[in-house]
Amino acid sequence: MNKLLKITLGLVATAAIVSCNQQASTTTEKTTAPATETATAADPIDKIAYVNSDTLSEKYQYFKDIRAKLEAKVKKAQNDLQAKGQAYQREVADYQQKAPTMSASERQATEERLMRRQNELGRLDQNASTSIAQEEQTEFTKVYTSITDHLKKHSEEKGYKLVLTYSKTNPAVLYADPKMDITNEVLTSLNKEYSDKNAAAKK
């Protein structure tokens, strides 16, 4: 019993290939400019950026609220199952004390009842785990969607053509120049958007 699913606190990978409305209608120009001038603001490399998913999972308020909500549900389910399990154990202990003085039919009836109780607790445990797992998937899908939708708008505004995700625990990118890290600007706008939505909902 009490084998409740542990909440996955890792953020879903937020890599999103973003298509920009700005089409690069650059033409090939003959130039004798020095090599030091080739990397400009219009260089395609400047259109690639990344966000740190570890930071988003720690500081994105929407994610933090969902995590707290799910953790509270897990704790409540665990407490409920623990209380029912302790009550069951008391029944078993009571039966063990009285069994020597019970008739064969009474012992059989009591054992059958205790077996049903044990099976019922197992079903409650399984149902609680399944319910929380389903809710977890639904809620984190919403978080993922909010991030990817926001990244699309943000990238269109900033001109990013590709936004990658980086995580120390699951590094899909082995190295990334810190100058390409847009986590803080994305995090700021994400939290502002979430705060504005909550404020509007309270009106």
Automatic annotation (TrEMBL):
Keywords: Coiled coil, Signal. Residues 67-127 form a coiled coil. Residues 1-24 form the signal peptide. SUPFAM superfamilies: OmpH-like (SSF111384). The keyword Acetylation does not apply. The keyword Coiled coil applies. Belongs to the Skp family. Pfam families: OmpH. This is OmpH family outer membrane protein. PROSITE patterns: PROKAR_LIPOPROTEIN (PS51257). It comes from the Bacteria.
